Every structure is written in C-alpha cells, then in structure tokens.
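Tip: read the tokens left to right.
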C-alpha cells in the first residue's frame, strides 16, 4: 500500500522480502523504511542494519520489545497498566498480590493477534509454558470501557499531525472492526495527542506511529505502540483527505505534512482468512 501511495507523488517504492539477496535490492541510494518492527537476521537485514538512511533504524528494537517499550512509558510518566517482568514461577504470589486476580502475560517479543499472550488467574499458572519465564512481562488486567488507537505522523522538522481517535473492537485478540467519527471526544483526543507527541519527540521518531489505548473512565491507558503504519489506520485510504501510507512517505522523505481532514464517519472491517479443507 505504500507503493500505491507513492505513485501519484512520483515516489518509487520497492517492496522487498527479508530473504532477498542484497545485490538484487537497490538500497544503496534509497531511503529505507519498514512495515514491521522486528525481523530475522538475513544477508539483507545485516546490510540494512548499517544503512545511514534507514529511518528509525535504532528505534525499532526498543519498541519491538515490550519490556523496553514499557520502560519508555514509565520514563515519560505516561499512564499504562501496572506491569512487571515475569522472571520465575516463584513470583506468582507477589504478582497476584501487586496486580490483582487477573494477570495478562505477554511475550516480550512477538505475540500478537492473540498469540503469545495468556489471561491467568490464581490456580492457572501451570498453563504458562516453562520457556515464557524471563521472556514475558505480566500486566494487571484492566476493566476498560473501550479500546481506541491514535495514528499520527512526525516529520524530520519535529512537526506532528494526527487522525481522529479510532474505536476498535477485538475478538479473541484480533482486530475485527475499526470505527472513526469526524468529531471525536475532544478531551480524549487532546489527551491522546499529548501522549503520542511525548513519545514521538522523546524518540526523535519520523513517520507514522500508532498508539493503542484503553479507555478507563475519563482517561486513557496506553496498551501498546506500533512504530509503523497500522491496521487500525487502514480506513484512512478512503475516509480521510490523506492516507496513513502517503503521510508516512511524506514524513520520511521530508515532504510537507498536511493535517488530515475527516468529514464523515468510517468503518473498517478486518477480513480474516480461514484454512481451506
């Protein structure tokens, strides 16, 4: 989708697989971006790891690990669910004493769409694989009234623009539907923009980032950050004056960042494929 967004602007986008041979990829004089924040080590990724024009190259590992991501939020005093590193089985009494009777365990790296995550109560600790200890964080289960995400973009000059808050419905940990209104709750919108701005500026991040939040009363708790174009922002292709994909390209290439305009409600339905018999 980045490729299609670049065509009207005269920007050539070359999608490449991580297992491509480096000599087959014209990366030497290119600006490098990514649509995923973690990748295996291959001949190509070893070359890109030292590329001076790989935008956000050193930020991806920090946000791909939930431990260092949570540490960043704490450093900035941004609200998130109470959490801790889960290092051993011996911690469970202290975990439930500190975090409550519902513990959400997440693998530090990987784990999405319901995979690599567990909802555990006292007596269910044995459901967690032995190899999870030391490789997971554990969070307090939050009683929230809704889930929203804020998609924004920051340019090389430090200016940021944002879309309206998107309301998300998940089923079994997988995003099913996103709904956006042209006039979001102003207090929550302002709160979300302040939070995401603090993160973007602290990291000196350039490009599109999504911030997923829980609504708890009249405040937001940050759930996770995605340093890339995001599935909860796909509605922007048809529902906004500029898509998240064009906005990302403009940001990383130093082009002007127009403020997105949204005039009508939009709904995105996430179509999930199933195995064929």
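Filled-in amino acids:
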């Amino acid at each position: 989708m980045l490729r299609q967004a670049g065509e009207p602007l005269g920007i050539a986008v070359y999608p490449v697989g991580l297992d491509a041979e480096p000599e087959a990829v014209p990366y030497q004089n290119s600006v490098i971006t990514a649509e995923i924040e973690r990748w295996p080590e291959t001949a190509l990724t070893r070359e890109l790891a030292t590329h001076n024009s790989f935008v956000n190259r050193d930020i991806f590992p920090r946000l791909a690990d939930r431990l260092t991501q949570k540490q960043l939020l704490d450093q900035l005093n941004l609200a998130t669910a109470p959490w801790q590193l889960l290092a051993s089985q011996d911690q469970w009494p202290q975990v439930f004493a500190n975090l409550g009777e519902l513990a959400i365990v997440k693998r530090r790296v990987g784990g999405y769409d319901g995979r690599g995550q567990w909802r555990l109560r006292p007596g269910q600790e044995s459901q967690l694989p032995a190899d999870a200890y030391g490789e997971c964080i554990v969070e307090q289960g939050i009683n929230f009234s809704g889930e929203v995400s804020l998609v924004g973009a920051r340019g090389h000059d430090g200016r940021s623009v944002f879309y309206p808050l998107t309301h998300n419905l998940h089923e079994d940990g997988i995003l099913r539907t996103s709904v956006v209104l042209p006039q979001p709750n102003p207090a929550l919108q302002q709160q979300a923009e302040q939070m995401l701005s603090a993160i973007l500026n602290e990291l000196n991040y350039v490009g599109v980032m999504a911030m997923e939040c829980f609504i708890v009363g009249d405040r937001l708790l940050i759930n996770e950050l995605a340093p890339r174009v995001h599935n909860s922002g796909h509605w922007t292709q048809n529902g906004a004056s500029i898509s998240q994909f064009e906005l990302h390209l403009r940001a990383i290439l130093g082009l002007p960042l127009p403020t997105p305009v949204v005039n009508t409600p939009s709904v995105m339905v996430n179509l999930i494929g199933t195995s064929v018999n």
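The chain has eight helices and eleven strands. The mean pLDDT is 93.
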